[in-house]
Model the fold of this input.
Amino acid sequence: MKTKILALAAISLMICSCDPVEEYQANKCIAPLPAGVTVDSLIDCTVPASFSCDDFNWMGGNLTMTVYSQDLYDAVEVTQLQKGDTIIYESKPMVIDSISDNDGFLTINGGLEEGGCYLQGYEGGTYRAVQFDDHSIYTELGKAELPLAEDFIIIDCGDNPDDPCDTIKTGQKLYLESLKDYKKIFFNLNTTVVIINGVITEINRKWIP
Done:
């Protein structure tokens, strides 16, 4: 009798414990891919960055900026997402209740308007996290202070989407000082900084809504 009781107890324990474990293990969590750079190792790369005209040290010949990484997800992991899985979006976990695919544009949990999110097919086998106005989402990596190349270039957008860009190869300090106040701040949403051999060679700002 004792043997039968122990056997029944063991079977009951297996039934109670296996299903939840299997269900838990079937669900997965995906997060943005690693940035690939750190603020301490900006050698040869192009990074989204934010700064103001006051962050230029013209006497020292350097720029202090906040560096970001674009939130990108592995395409294979994204295409395997299903209800019950979790995605890290804007640094917060989001459990997936619904997901729809419209030609590579994914709407999760009803999209941003309903507290969900959007993902869009991107280059290099990735998806990018998308917010309103088609802007990407970025993660702040920290501050960095880097030297400016003597011949660094500023490529700056106009005030309107159809305006040609200004390419500033000389007189960069004068150009920045002459900007309207609202353009004296550069945002990571539309500004990238090109770094070669640890030196800033180009600042590129594109027009965005």
About this structure: The first strand starts at residue 29 and ends at 30. The mean pLDDT is 90. The chain has three helices and 16 strands. Residues 155 and 167 are 5 Å apart (CA to CA).
